[in-house]
Amino acid sequence: MTARLFFLLLILSASACSNQPLKPPAKAPAPPAPAASPAVKPVCNCPPPEAPRELPPIQIPDAQKYAPPAMIKPDEPIKGPDYSLLKPAAWEELEGFEQDDLSAAWPAWLQSCSTLKNKQPWQSVCNAALALNSPSSEAVRAYYKQYFSAYRATNTDGTDTGLITGYYEPLLKGSRVRSERYRYPLYAQPDDLIAVELGSLYPELANKRVRGRLINNKLVPYYSRGEIDLAQSPLQGKELLWIDDIIDLFFLQIQGSGLIQLDNGERLHVGYADQNGQSYQSIGRLLIDRGELSADKASMQGIKDWARGNPDRLRDLLNSNPSYVFFRELPAGLSGPLGALGVPILGERSVAIDPRYIPLGAPVLLSATYPNSSKPLQRLMMAQDTGGAIKGGVRADFFWGAGLEAGRQAGAMKQRGKIWVLLPRNFPLTASN
Question: Which domains does the chain have, with CATH numbers?
Answer without folding.
Answer: 83-186+241-281+321-424 (2.40.40.10)
